[in-house]
Amino acid sequence: MKKILLVGECVLDIIQIVDTFPKEDDDVRSVHAYHQRGGNASNSSTVLTNLGLKCELLTTFSNDKMFVFIIEDLKDRNIEIKNCRYYENCNIPLSTVLLSKDTGCRTIIHTNKNLPHVKFEDFDKCDLSEYYWIHFEARSVPETTRMMQKIKDFNEGKADDEQIKISLELEKKRDENMLLIKYADVAILGRDFAEILGCHDKTTAIYKLKDMTINDDRYKNEKCILICPWGKDGACALDLDGNYFESPIYPCETTVDTLGAGDTFTAGILYSLIKDFNKVQQAIFNGCKIAGFKCGFYGYDCVKDFHFS
User: What is the mean pLDDT of the chain?
Assistant: First the structure.
């Protein structure tokens, strides 16, 4: 059985749940605290696995003892990690998260002191015949460009249903990451990234992105589905024919945990497009619905009980 490969960072999330967000120099007690595996691609792989898809995560690890928990959790969930590189004497990437009970909002402080990101030579170990879809976090442009180009070369001359689909998540505020869009079949434009393009609403953002993929040779790609989530304002999309779709949010009754809602949205999009690549409108509905559903629970195992319409 072929699978989906997700390429990105894997981190340790340390989460403190507080009644209200503390003021500077406060000394407060949390209501509860726990730790879990995190990282965008890592979280999306968890959601997709819980939805029944076979997943592999390509990331980097080290001999830091805190990675033992991360690796065991991935193995317990049957998320493959056979092609990951292990480094010596590198610290685990760490996210400290405050979840506020009165708002459900999360505040994240992230650090990655010295663990390298995935390199082309790591990706080159992967047997591309094992995958039908590969998803990338936009990170090192030179390395990721080589990875994507290898997929394009692999696809050359194959029938459409035998080609690997490429999806790209544009989230980090680095405008050079736009260079990767020319290789993508699906691009998910995050709000933070959209704002560095000078856009302050989802509709403006997605049409700005579309214009760039048509008229700027650096980003030329007229065969890419574009998707733009925008928090409480829902999400929008442009399909391959240029049709524009919107979806509202689908909030849960009580918001308890918004950490990873965006990664859950991404997983919902990928799951839907894997099932039917042409149903873009349904995909953004499903992405918004599953993200809203997840926010009513801690973690991601709740999505096992989610049913797509």
Answer: 95
